[in-house]
Amino acid sequence: MSHPMMPETTHDEHVEQLFVRDFKVFLGEGIGEQMRGIAEGIADGAGEAPMRDVRRQLMDNEVFRSWISYRRLSQEMMWDAVGRSIDRQIDDLQERARIAEPKGSVRIDPDFAPPPYIAALDVHLMPGGYHHDRGEDDVRQGALIDRGGAVYMLGRNGGLMNDVRGHTTVQHLWEVYPEIEPRRILDLGCAVGASTVAVASHFPDAEVYGVDVGGAMLRYAHARAEHLGERVHFVQDDAEHMAFEDESFDVVYSCVLLHETSNNASRAIFRECHRLLRPGGVMIHTEVPGRTDELGLWGNIQGDFEALYNNEPFWRGMQNMDFAAVAREAGFADPTIGYQLAAPNPSRDAVGGFSDQSSGPFRSWFMISARK
Predict the structure, then answer these.
(1) What are phi and psi of 160, to 5 degrees?
(2) pTM higher than 0.90 for the full model?
(3) CA atoms within 13 A on the CB side of 249
(4) Which of 71-80, 88-97, 139-148, 154-163 has the lowest mean pLDDT?
């Protein structure tokens, strides 16, 4: 399944993107197993040496360093292949983004400045990061994120719709907070609105908002939602301090936002969630599964790659943060922490999808939720 705003591919472009996808799988899962053996061998020989010493010895290994270089190269190849395909059809994409009679809206602030932790680097090595905007009717960055994200996820988050996290968030809401019937919903760090549209589809009578930092991305998100028939209002703003009124939402949520922020920013976002929620409202943050103390040697070394070589500087911080404590600091009395099984088709009747056990990436998602 796809949607009208998704960049199309010629035969050669499609084959190139499939090659990059398969190259990434080969490096990550094929060669990755051999690298795991090298890492475990070093760890076994290091005895009680701290993890930093194991990492240092591992980086002395020429084969391991080459593997890291190829993994980084595969990421750069992906963005290059997708970007060239988008540039071929950018005029058509921008024409598709012109909605004559929109259900929702998009509000761009010409004076907006993204947070330093976003502006300082190209997240995921994506040229321009989330915030790049050429102005006026530009939607290129949104198209790049949408198509590139589907390739990056290897199709495991809902294929070209890339929306399983949004559906899983709804399943968590229904399973853990079944009595809530939200009238106003806010998605923090909505990107191209994949999760926003997924959530909106389950609450057709609710007023749904999505907030993020990039103008071009939000213009694309708005057009994407309109073509999919969902009424969503997109706003360019900073999730740490937004212009919405106090106690104006019933549900405030995010999908994989926190690991793109910072220690201080995450705390500020939790405080903002508490400010924006009505009494009895629910906060939900859906994140990548994997806590440092659960990942083991190889999981933590793979996290090193994300933090050091894939422009994810808060990856380790997210894996170590005590989110229950952060939620309490923000004013939430009884936070819920655990894992929700991926739910492409959420149901109010489903049970047993939330637990304290991770089923691994893409099969489950780490959840932090609380009621005000």
Answers:
(1) -70, -15
(2) yes
(3) 25
(4) 154-163
